[in-house]
Design goal:
Elements: H1 2-5, H2 12-27, E1 34-36, H3 48-52, H4 63-87, E2 92-99, E3 102-104, H5 109-131, H6 137-144, H7 155-161, E4 166-171, E5 175-177, E6 186-187, E7 194-195, H8 211-225, E8 229-233, E9 243-245, E10 248-250, H9 254-273, E11 277-280, E12 303-305, E13 317-319, H10 321-331
Parallel strand pairs: 1-2, 2-4, 3-5, 4-8, 8-11
Antiparallel strand pairs: 6-7, 9-10, 12-13
Helix pairs in contact: 2-4, 4-7, 8-9
Length: 340
């Protein structure tokens, strides 16, 4: 698709996607209830090739072509929602976005505006999914960047009539915005860098750790849409060390336990705030190659896989300390999070 069609820059992908979703919806219509149309759909803005299959080199990709590709994805998502509800009216179909709350670097109004503009780039996707139309705030951005979205006949109606049943998202970090970012120290996040937040710690890959940010995201989405929410990715990538333990090889990953515990406690706070939450799933249950860096050494799982970046290793699997910890969290429906 990337080589022959240039990914979602080509409108032909909508019809290919339609065939795919019809096949999957029909096959699993009596087995699966909750569906997501695209994974982290807004990440196409940061990684056009990885997220959207757009083979045009990033330095040559115009904003016009990038946002036209976004439009194609949004139309395809609405079409999938329509088809799914026709095949099984009991389906619950949601969008999935990469959530990153943005804080202004200072109380300067210009910095507050910079944070707002950053968040609007991400809200664009959930706004269209939930409200069925392009938001007014994007018109100025399009005008100032020479972007004119080409609508095919029926696009507007398709978007308007096929909004999602819930909002799902991944959450790993927050960001800081300023109108003059060159005056501040930058982070080294591998997917999305930016200004360092002096009040937050960072992972080994430069992603700043912000549990309270998850509560903010939950409240912001729920206040904005009054739709059920679903956290479908959240976790810590780290360089785990396999060592001998009393019951065999393991990883003493207390840092992962602390990360997840703090984030889940903030989920509890959001529930007390009144947020309607369908569920929470971590990224991920087992070590695998990290898509953002193509490394296996960036490990997320509760299960250690003996495999190295160079392909060596036995593929043997070992429970980390976090495995039994998270098992207890599930068994107690979160009550163990508040026990010493």
């Amino acid at each position: 698709m990337a080589r022959q069609y240039n990914g979602w820059a080509n409108r032909d992908l909508i019809s290919f996607y339609e065939r795919y979703v019809r096949t999957v919806f029909t096959r699993y219509k009596d087995k699966v209830k909750y569906w997501l149309t695209f994974n982290e759909i807004n990440s196409v803005l940061h990684a056009p090739f990885m997220s959207g299959g757009i083979a045009t080199p990033a330095e040559e990709l115009s904003k016009q072509d990038l946002y036209q590709a976004v439009h194609h994805e949004l139309v395809a998502s609405a079409l999938a929602t329509k088809i799914g509800h026709e095949i099984n009216p009991d389906f619950k179909i949601g969008c999935m976005v990469l959530a990153m709350p943005a804080y202004p670097m200072t109380p300067k109004p210009e910095d507050v505006l910079a944070a707002r503009e950053f968040e609007n780039q991400n809200y664009l996707f959930s706004d269209i999914h939930a409200r069925g139309k392009y938001p007014a705030y994007i018109n100025r951005f399009f005008k100032e960047n020479g972007i004119e979205i080409q609508f095919a006949p029926g696009d507007k109606e398709l978007l308007a009539e096929n909004t999602v049943d819930f909002i799902s998202f991944s959450y790993y970090m927050s960001v800081v915005a300023a109108h003059d970012p060159e005056n501040y120290s930058s982070g080294r996040g591998n997917l999305l860098g930016g200004i360092m937040n002096p009040h937050l710690a960072s992972s080994e890959w430069g992603w700043q750790i912000d549990p309270v940010g998850l509560r903010l995201v939950l409240n912001s989405f729920y206040d904005r849409y009054q739709l059920p929410l679903f956290i479908v990715e959240n976790g810590l990538g780290a360089k785990d060390i396999l060592a001998d333990g009393p019951n065999g090889p393991t990883v003493e990953d207390d840092y992962r336990i602390d990360y997840l515990k703090q984030h889940l406690q903030q989920v509890g706070e959001a529930l007390e705030d009144g947020v309607e939450l369908l569920g929470y799933t971590t990224w991920g249950c087992i070590d695998l190659v990290s898509a953002s860096t193509a490394e296996l050494s960036k490990r997320y799982g509760f299960i250690y896989v003996d495999r190295n970046d160079d392909g060596t290793g036995s593929l043997a699997r070992y429970k980390k300390k976090s495995f039994d910890w998270y098992k207890e969290v599930i068994a107690t429906n979160g009550n163990s999070l508040y026990q010493d």
